[in-house]
Amino acid sequence: MKVPFSWLTEHLALTEGIGVDEVVDALVRVGIEVDGVHRLEQVRGPLVIGRVEKITELTQFKKPIRYCRVDVGDAVEPGSTDATRGIICGATNFTEGDLVVVALPGAVLPGDFAISARKTYGHLSEGMMCSAREVGLGEDHSGILVLPRNSATPGDDATEGLGLDDAVLEVTPTPDRGYALSVRGLARELACALDLPFADPGLRELPKAKGDAWPVRIEDPDGCKRFVVRRVSGLDPSAPTPWWMQRRLMLAGIRSISLAVDVTNYVMLELGQPLHAFDAERVKGELVVRRAKEGEKLTTLDDVERVLDPGDIVICDDTGPISLAGTMGGASTEITPESTDVLLEGAFWNPASISRTARRHHLFSEAAKRFERHTDPAVAPVAVEMAANLLRTYGGGTVQLGRTDEGRMEKLPPVTMPISLPDEVAGVRYERGVTARRLTQIGCKVSIDTAPDGTGLVVAEPPSWRPDLQRPADLVEEVLRLEGYDTIPSTVPAAPPGTGLTAEQRRKRSVARALAEAGYVEVAPPPFVSKQTWDKMGLPADDVRRNTVSLLNPLDADSAELATTLLPGLLDALQRNQSRGLRDVALFQIGQVFLPQKGAPRVPDPPVTERPSDEELATLEASVPKQPLHVAVVLSGNRERAGWWGPGRSAAWADAVQAARIVAEVSGVELQIEAAEHAPWHPGRCARLLVGDFPVGYAGELHPKVVEAMGLPKRTVAMELDLDAVPVVENRPAPPMSPYPPVLMDVALVVDESVPAASVEKALRSGAGARLEDVTLFDIYTGEQIGDGKRSLAFKLRFRDPERTLSSEEAVELRDAAVAAAAEEFGATLRA
Fold first, then answer.
1. Which H or E run contains 814?
2. Residue 724: closest CA among 534, 514, 525, 507
3. Beta carbons of 331 and 303 less than 8 angstroms apart
4. How many CB atoms lie under 10 A from the CB of residue 117?
5. Looking at residues 467-476, what average pLDDT do you find?
6. Is residue 714 helix, strand or coil?
7. Average pLDDT, the chain
8. CA distances from 231 to 9, 335, 371, 383, 403 (A)
9. Quick check: 221 and 290 in contact, CB under 8 A?
10. How far is CA 819 from CA 125, 772, 816, in A?
11. pTM to 2 decimals?
12. Residue 81: what pLDDT?
């Protein structure tokens, strides 16, 4: 919302030294965001009021050009007997006798636009008639700025008359403070912030109107709590909007249209109550407020025929709907340049209904913006009366005796809180009386009471414009923000000894750090999947991973299930990176999966008005699915890039297994690897990951059908491991260090192709015993020299004794023992 500084401070008695900057700071201090301050740029040089005396149309040009003689009063050349000046102008929105703003030669307009006398279109132009934008009064550049006749004298200084020493504040109140979308609400906030007296223009005692009122019937009391109507007849349709009102609307970003429309817009900005003006002569019979009927149509003021929804609230007469309530009026009763009989309407509409209507029809009008944030039901008759009086004063209309005021305004319930609660929440001891004073400033009626235990209580009756004040916490917030959040001390609590990250949290961070150091990039895909995902991954019909938790209100109807594995989200991220031109991708994620529990109770729906009972909390806890922490990686493209250093290497199943080894090493556990078949991995290139005898995950190359179904690069590899299933090792023993040298030996064993290398490694370790310090597979060979169905596995063996130096003979005996164990278990033979 844009509001001129002069208008905002009109209802306040500002003390000396309070300017625009101080007002901005005060508004921000109480929680009103100020997006910008636009100071009206001063025009340098002569800027005067002129009267158009004569207009000559220059018809020899392709576009409209006028040569005007403009009376500028005393602002003429010394010694001149002619008080007029010739000015060329292309605008056509003025006539002879109109008052205009004239920049004379020597003036410099905003943007350093200098004005000089020059010959153009065959005439000497001695100045320029200005638009609102050219003097800094807004963005309107559709025509020149025309002032009401007799509002000034030719030759008067226009700078003072236009108020070019003003500034415009652009404010954005939070959605729960609808009252702040008005000068009235902002001025009240400013008065609270600066501790100034405030004369509320919305609190007026209206005399009871006598006479017949326009008949109104409310058929939907839930949608319309109050409906006020006032009739003004005999209005002069040619009466201009007074300049002071035009100027305020212009600076607020609203274009002046006609007196009747301008008055409704002005009152809306002043009091926060949107009004609508009907042409009373075009309204047929009684006004009825109801919900729209199926199939009804309404042509709104923007000349769009709209099909109404049964959820829309409409205002009808005998002909049907004539207005979309709280959003936009209908074209059938629109105020026209000939309208002399005006029916002013101000109402209080259900905020939720107006919000839904505005979104349903994409009509986000200024009225809807205020109604959906809750207007003040008590100000509706005051706003209608103010608008009627303005039309009488400036349009010569007659306000009819009757005033319609249908509906009932219910008082907001009082809120009781301990008087010391703000002090306890803020940790500050406020001065005596602060709580009552601050609540009174925002409009509450405050009384002091005493609880049975002797505790002092504050009973606050919220004003009609503050429906957000419902709980003691809301009152506390008001006291704290008006006293200033900056007065609340920031004290960091001391961390008691023995606290900090848990062992599981430390392990999670260590795993993430280790994978990042290994070249993986962490991602966080959403945990939502569709049922088709499991088919693409080739999961069997009875696979437990298909048993998911469904969402009642998903963000995407096609992804309405919570994932039981991290792979779908990771593979989707991989595919997205590939589609954007990234070929070598290594991603990882550490996140929770969602596993529904068998026999879990149905999720209860406890009320929000009170704390759930212990039984309800226990049922809620039991209904929550298990959410173990998993870690997963996916790779595609080159694991080692090609360059001058070498040909590079494509990612393979072994890289996925190595990622699992990294996780195990960081976690301080030993990982066992064995061949397995588990979707969505390739049956011959899948490894089961075990800690002891317990499987914790799988790694390997994805099945080609899965790769094709999900649009992934060929030979994509992946690993997923249940991190919660891996034991937490809190106190790791330091690795033994031996001062004695190792003995390094290589051994190549020929085994059947079906024998996993990990199983052979395990046999070597068991055969050699504790003095075999490390085993590393460094080569795999298949070929004619080995024979069909065979392969050679070459291992590096490192032997070391922690207490003495091993001899070569002892190392050979250990190697032979290791080979013998592999031979006995798998029929392995030494390769010649």
1. helix 808-826
2. 507
3. yes
4. 14
5. 94
6. coil
7. 90
8. 31, 13, 23, 13, 8
9. no
10. 108, 12, 5
11. 0.66
12. 59
CA 458 to chain CA centroid, Å, is: 36
> E-strand spans in 283-338?
287-291, 297-299, 305-307, 313-317, 320-324, 328-329
User: From CA 123, how far away is CA 119, in angstroms rounded?
Assistant: 5
Phi, psi of 614 (to 5 degrees): -60, -35
Beta-strand runs (E) in 268-310: 275-279, 287-291, 297-299, 305-307
Dist. CA 591–CA 267, nearest whole Å? 55
Beta-sheet strand order (sheet of 629-636): 521-522, 585-592, 629-636, 717-722, 694-702, 681-691, 671-675
| Bridge partners, 324 (sequence order) | 314, 328
**Distance between CA atoms of residues 696 and 832, nearest Å:** 39
pLDDT at position 16 over 90: no
Is the CA virtual torsion 257, 263, 264, 268 positive or negative?
positive
C-alpha 463/C-alpha 374 separation (Å) is: 13
Q: Which domains does the chain have, with CATH numbers?
A: 2-40+167-194 (3.30.56.10), 47-162 (2.40.50.140), 216-407 (3.50.40.10), 415-484 (3.30.56.10), 503-604+614-725 (3.30.930.10), 743-830 (3.30.70.380)
End-to-end CA distance of the chain: 88
pLDDT greater at residue 17 or residue 214: 214
**638 or 149: which carries more pLDDT confidence?**
638
Chain length of the chain: 832
- pLDDT tens digits, 665-695: 999 998 999 889 999 999 989 999 999 889 9
Q: What is the DSSP string of 587-635?
A: EEEEEE--BPPTTPPPPP---SSSPPPHHHHHHHHHHSPB--EEEEEEE
Range among 137-151, 197-211, 351-365 rated most confident: 351-365
- Residue pair 137/145 in contact by the 8 Å Cβ criterion: yes
- Rounded distance, CA 482 to CA 439, Å? 9
Q: Which residue has the tokens 């709580």?
A: 435
Q: Which amino acid is at 543?
A: D
